[in-house]
Amino acid sequence: MYKVLVMDGISDMGIQLLYDAPDVEVEKKNGLSEDELVAIIADYDALLVRSATKVTERIMGAGSKLKVVGRAGVGVDNIDLEAATKRGIVVINAPDGNTIATCELTFAMMMSVARMIPQAYKKTVGGEWDRKTFVGVELRNKVLGVLGMGRIGSEVAKRAKAFGMEVLGYDPFLTEERAEKLGVKLGTVNEICAAADFITVHTPLTNETRHMISKPQFELMKKGARIINCARGGIIDEMALVEAIDAGIVAGAAFDVFEKEPPAADHPFLNHPKIVVTPHLGASTVEAQENVAIDVSEEVLHILRDQPFKNAVNMPPVPANVLNALQPYFNLGEKLGVFLGQTIDGPVSEIVVNYSGDLTDVDTTPLTRYIVKGILANQLEGVNIVNAMHLAKTRGLNVVVQKSSAAKSFTNLVSVTLKTKQEERVLAGTLLSGYGERIVQIDQYPVDIAPSGHLLLISHNDKPGIIGKVGTLLGDNGVNIATMQVGRKVVGGSAIMVLTTDKETPKEVLDRLIQLPELTNARELTL
Ligand SMILES: NC(=O)c1ccc[n+]([C@@H]2O[C@H](COP(=O)([O-])OP(=O)(O)OC[C@H]3O[C@@H](n4cnc5c(N)ncnc54)[C@H](O)[C@@H]3O)[C@@H](O)[C@H]2O)c1
Ligand SMILES: O=C(O)[C@H](O)COP(=O)(O)O
């Protein structure tokens, strides 16, 4: 039974999928401190949060069973991604579910700041009938600058056109074609700051975007510009904004997010007559909360059940067509790795993976992760497809991927070479129609082996009688041979024998095998 801890008031309707799952037990808690989470997290396989819970290295360190942290929303700045990756914990988010909610809040904020609705409301309910102070501006014919043209920024740009606004956009990944399709003119941050009547930001908070709008940008702005931030606190320099308003450059601002949340009681935005504030409500609609909770629940179930998933934040996304093409090979790739990992002595210095045939048509990176995971699994605990490449890198292990279009006798071939300072071992596998996964090459020897169960890999000199000696020794010790294959390059030269056995060969039997004078090596492998 998997235990899932759900924090931060995530929608019950959205996580119904988890309640309904027969293999999942859900517990809901709110407002736990870091210490309280550290004390209980070892019981859980999955943790679901919004932005309120900070998922720190300490929490993940204590989460000995933790497989996945699910963020019911977009921003993962409350989750220590590096710590998760190191521990092989998958971090997933729900990037699409709250786009429209946040886009619509952006317009609510834009209208609020254009017409001073919150300020007018406050006076009206206070008993004043003040129609002179609140003369606003229209959006029509105004220039809107959108910094960050991802999901939310693009939706904002589309709707701004309906208000009759001219839209200028900046995003390092916005192509001219896409900008043209959206009816957006491209500009630099400074050009947009100089030209816009309204500026809205929709980027993540990164080292590059921190204080992207600060004193120098405010100094470029038109008198009367208005600023909206429904993305992340810190993208706009809060103190520089207050100065720009007080200097008469900026006419007003609307902020849903703060550099520190919740802001201190004496934060200059609170009670400022020209600044509208909300408590991080961008995603707070019934629809968005249901959407993100459904998305994250589906992914959590996939991860807990070892099924493929798509929205991992600490792994590159895998497009559906790539996943479809590679998925049948994941198990084979891992088995090739597990096989090789058990056949090598001494530290591995390089892994060379060669893909040939149809597999060369897609990005094979996800499959490489399975291979590397399999190789490392023999040496390291807790290795999985999230941390496999990271662990390989931190151990100075070079992973080289090659592709060759000719697959020789096979439609597809995955060939893996493991190199240490002393030796080199090659293993190749394929999927054979009607037969499934097969290992088809060990070093220079062609073989045909199903990669599962117990195997004995024996290196020997090609001498008459050796097969009988091995068979007798195993038989005398109750180890039944299921299949046997022998390969050699030249008569009387070095050769290999691969046996599949119905049970593990005991260590003492293996030791006696190795003492046979014709044998150079014997290893028990479990796949
Ligand atoms: N207020 C809320 O409750 C709320 C709700 C949802 C999302 N958000 C936040 O809104 C932001 C945008 O969300 P999204 O779903 O559109 O994300 P997204 O990933 O689709 O878009 C972000 C865009 O920012 C661009 N970008 C990155 N660095 C940039 C830079 N230096 N200059 C300009 N553009 C840059 C990226 O290329 C990307 O296109 C995120 O920070 C997210 O956390 C806030
Ligand atoms: O990044 C997000 O998705 C938003 O900031 C929403 O955060 P929330 O789920 O805490 O409302």
Structure description:
- It catalyses: (2R)-3-phosphoglycerate + NAD(+) = 3-phosphooxypyruvate + NADH + H(+); (R)-2-hydroxyglutarate + NAD(+) = 2-oxoglutarate + NADH + H(+).
- Its EC number is 1.1.1.95.
- Catalyzes the reversible oxidation of 3-phospho-D-glycerate to 3-phosphonooxypyruvate, the first step of the phosphorylated L-serine biosynthesis pathway. Also catalyzes the reversible oxidation of 2-hydroxyglutarate to 2-oxoglutarate.
- It is an enzyme of class 1 (oxidoreductase).
- The longest helix has 22 residues, at 320-341.
- This protein is an alpha/beta fold and 527 residues long.
- The protein has 4 domains: 2-96 and 287-305, Rossmann fold, CATH 3.40.50.720; 98-277, Rossmann fold (3-Layer(aba) Sandwich); 316-441, 60s Ribosomal Protein L30, Chain: A, CATH 3.30.1330.90; 453-526, Alpha-Beta Plaits.
- The protein has 17 helices and 22 strands.
- Helix 14 (365-377) crosses helix 15.
- Strand 7 (166-170), helix 8 (176-182) and strand 8 (184-186) form a beta-alpha-beta unit.
- The strands form 4 sheets. Strands 8-7-6-9-10-11-12 form a 7-stranded parallel sheet, with helices on both faces. The protein has a 6-stranded mixed sheet with strand order 14-13-15-16-17-18, with helices on one face. It has a 5-stranded parallel sheet with strand order 2-1-3-4-5, with helices on both faces.
- The number of E-state strands comes to 22
- What is the CATH homology-level superfamily of the largest domain? NAD(P)-binding Rossmann-like Domain
Question: Which blocks of ≥5 consecutive residues have pLDDT under 50?
Answer: none
Q: How much helix is in the residues?
A: 25-40%
Task: Using the coordinates above, name the CATH class of the largest domain.
Answer: Alpha Beta
Principal-axes geometry comes out as elongated
